[in-house]
Amino acid sequence: MTLVTIVRKNLRQRALASTLTAASIALGVAVVVGILTLKEQSQAGFSQSAFGYELVVGSRGSALQLVLNTVYHMDQSQGNIPYSLYRELAGDRRVKMVIPVAVGDSYQGFRIVGTSDRFITEFEILPDQRFELAEGRAFSFSEEMLEHVMTSSSHHDHDHEGMKFEAVIGSTVAARTSLKVGSTFEAAHGVEEGPGTEKHEEVWTVTGVLKPTGTPNDRAIFINLESFFSIKGHVRPGEEGRGPEISAAILKTRGGLAARDLAYDLNRRPDAMAVVPAQVVAELFEMIGKVDKLLLAVSVLVILVAGVSILVSIYNSMSERRRPIAIMRALGARRTTILAIIVLEATALCLIGGGVGVIGGHAMAELSGGILKAQAGIPITGWAFHPLEFVIIGGLLVLGVLIGLLPALKAYRTDIAEGLSPTV
Questions:
Q1: What's the alpha-carbon Rg for the chain, to the nearest Å?
Q2: Which element (helix H / strand E) includes 419?
Q3: φ and ψ at 82, to 5 degrees?
Q4: Helix (H) or strand (E) holding 115
Q5: DSSP alpha helices (H): ranges in 245-276?
Q6: What is the residue-averaged pLDDT of the chain?
Q7: Is 182 left (phi over 0), alpha (psi -120 to 50) or beta?
Q8: CA distances from 87 to 90, 243, 265, 357 (A)
Q9: What gap in Å lies between CA 187 and CA 139, rounded to an integer?
Q10: d(CA 206, CA 187)
Q11: CA distances in angstroms from 22 to 309, 314, 315, 349, 388, listed in the order given
Q12: Residues 49 and 71 sit within 8 Å (Cβ to Cβ)
């Protein structure tokens, strides 16, 4: 009979205790693996998605909310900035490209973004990568029509003569809706579409479908900005005492110190602020990192407590196993063999729990990653292996040996004659 067979038999005899202690190990390991897998990929995904957004200009408030709303198409818009600021930035010599953004509507839960065609044709979403059309073309955009709409004094029935209501949709939108090139749709007011949601009377035609980018833009619908401001109910000159406004502006500068100087000037204004999305994302994950460390510490504590449980369980079983051990010794088993059996039992429990925990952690990360992808458009796979998992398995191996030594030494010192003598 081999050592492995003996260890397996011993674990089966204490099936309940073995299962509970291994499950405790598995729980701690699953949390550690899940956190490591999710954090690395989500941080890389969020950081990569913020690459092309050198500066984002929006109303004063939360920098994180501005970035989430403009870059990741999440959260609510915290307010608007004057359209005149967009025109001012377009003429600034430090600015290479300025892209207006107007949000507030949706279709089947997907955000609608009013912008210019430059976002589709010129904006660099990833290093040396622009949007590519899987089919169709970019929407038509007319600066002259936009100026006409923004400066029109009418706020009754809209003059749509010559107006093109066109849209380009992300790959996820195309996959999850029935929209394709040539399809038409009506926008819903607000970012949460429900049974009582008000529909706009305007109808948009899909002119293009974007190829997948692996960014939140896959979940967005882009329309020409002039059509956005032709929607009934959107702010027009003279309404509520304000001039025309947009939600935000995305800036590309000419390099050097231009971005820093622009941010400084814009942040001195009372009606706007400028943020660096990459910096905001870094600060966000720095805060999240503190929570991760706490969860990791708790998980390690769970593993250690489970290790102590294994130690207590095996140690307490030594009294009832004294006779079988003495019989094995009488049949010729060496003391080192008995020691090895007990150490292998403890190590096996740790490794079984660790293996189940690793699988469970990846499954948890896969499930959470699917939710995160649906909400933020960040692609995450739960089955990506993290290098620290080797450390976890190695640590469990060492833990198993250490917690098995004390009961193993007790078995090692078992006297054959005493073990074989009948107990009262």
A1: 32
A2: helix 416-420
A3: -65, 140
A4: strand 110-115
A5: 258-266
A6: 86
A7: left
A8: 5, 13, 16, 56
A9: 16
A10: 12
A11: 10, 13, 16, 5, 20
A12: yes
Contacts with 422 (C-beta within 8 Å, 6 or more apart), sequence order: none
Q: What is the DSSP string of 184-199?
A: EEEEEESSS--TTPPE
Angle at 103 between CA 99 and CA 109, to 5 degrees: 130
Give the DSSP H/E element, type plus range, for residue 250: strand 248-253
Residue 138 is classified by DSSP as P
Integer CA distances (angstroms), 185 to 107, 199, 203, 329, in order: 8, 10, 6, 82
| Tally of residues, the chain | 424
Q: Do the beta carbons of residue 14 and residue 321 sit within 8 Å?
A: no
Place of tokens 């190829």: 211
CA distance 227 to 108: 19
List the Cα angle 130/136/141 in 5-degree steps: 70
Secondary structure (3-state) at 379: coil
CB 262 within 8 A of CB 55: yes
**Which pLDDT tens digit goes with each residue over 71-105?**
999 988 888 999 999 999 999 999 999 999 999 89
- Distance in angstroms (rounded) separating the CA atoms of residues 313 and 93: 74
The pLDDT value given to residue 242: 59
* Separation between Cα atoms, residue 317 and residue 346, nearest integer Å: 12
Q: Six-digit token pair at 242?
A: 């304000």
173: Cβ contacts below 8 Å, ≥ 6 apart: 107, 110, 179, 218, 219, 220, 221
pLDDT of residue 139: 95
Residue 354 near residue 399, CB atoms below 8 Å? no
Indicate the range of 33-37, 138-142, 407-411 predicted with least confidence: 407-411
Using N-to-C axis directions, what is the helix angle for 63-70 and 277-317, rounded to 10°?
100
With vertex at residue 383, the alpha carbon angle to CA 378 and CA 385, rounded to the nearest 5 degrees, is 105
Phi, psi (degrees; rounded to nearest 5) at 391: -65, -40
Let me know: does 275 contact 81? Beta carbons within 8 Å: no
